[in-house]
Amino acid sequence: MGHARHFVRLFGLVAIVVIAFLGARAQVVPKDFGTQGPFRASAIPEAAKREPRHLGSEACSDCHAKINDAWAKGKHHTPQCENCHGPGLLHVKVMSEDSVDAYPDQIKKNPKALRVTSGIQECEWCHLKTFERPSTLKSIKNVERHIIETGGKYTAASKCTDCHNPHTTVVK
Ligand code: HEC
Ligand code: HEC
Ligand code: HEC
Ligand code: HEC
After folding, report:
1. Is pLDDT of 147 > 90?
2. What range defines the domain where residue 39 resides?
3. What residues line ligand 1, using a CB cutoff of 6 Å?
4. What's the domain count of the chain?
């Protein structure tokens, strides 16, 4: 029966670990976690208070009237400016001021504060044929073949914007 002591110690140790875990968990899990689902209930009002980073194409029209006009009248008015250029909140803030001195280094290095377009990646997001895309959206099956079939010369540096105006889709 001398071996029973080993089990008592083992169970004692397990009990200490379990109690320590439950204690630590009670300390670090926020009080409102799980009241509405597997998340912090106060995360909802917190997220709702944040300033939206996407502004919509209308917010670009004052300063970029010519592009906005061409875009609105053309075949490409479904994708919004920010679909390709990224969220505009910081760009508009920075461009409305005289200097970027008050901004962090990131903005000083990229004073337009926008995503850099590649002229090919943005186009592939929507126009490269996949099973999921609606068949009504005109698409290309293969970049190289499309460029060759339309009379271009394909190289590693080829871009869709070599031929298409991105704002109207019209071939230059
Ligand atoms: C307060 C005026 C203002 C507003 C509003 C504004 N822009 Fe600009 N934007 C500028 C200025 C000034 C430039 C720099 C001059 C230029 O390249 O035309 C610029 C440049 C750009 C460029 C060229 C970036 C580059 O790297 O050369 C893009 C793209 C752009 N804006 C997109 C947008 C989009 C999208 C919006 C709407 C979310 C927008 N802008 C709203 C003033 C504005
Ligand atoms: C389908 C993607 C797409 C959409 C939508 C789009 N752009 Fe662009 N835009 C581009 C690309 C790509 C370039 C770079 C053009 C190049 O390199 O020839 C560009 C260039 C620009 C430039 C700088 C060069 C120039 O032509 O003066 C501005 C400013 C700009 N866009 C503003 C806008 C605004 C404002 C809207 C919405 C009304 C918009 N863009 C919508 C893809 C887009
Ligand atoms: C966010 C999705 C989206 C992105 C990104 C996008 N497009 Fe489009 N594009 C569309 C939609 C939607 C249409 C169809 C417009 C309609 O019929 O309302 C279209 C239409 C076109 C057309 C066909 C116009 C016609 O003849 O009917 C061409 C060409 C085109 N886009 C080229 C481009 C190029 C080049 C780029 C990259 C600079 C690009 N697109 C990026 C969504 C996108
Ligand atoms: C060498 C020039 C050239 C390049 C580069 C190019 N295109 Fe085109 N594309 C054309 C021509 C020409 C047409 C047919 C003209 C038209 O109907 O407007 C066309 C038509 C299209 C169409 C409409 C297809 C249809 O079924 O009617 C789409 C979508 C398109 N291009 C997307 C792209 C995308 C995305 C890229 C970049 C991966 C690209 N193009 C690069 C010249 C080019």
Report:
1. yes
2. 4-49
3. 55, 59-60, 62-64, 81-82, 85, 88, 91-92, 95-96, 112, 114
4. 1
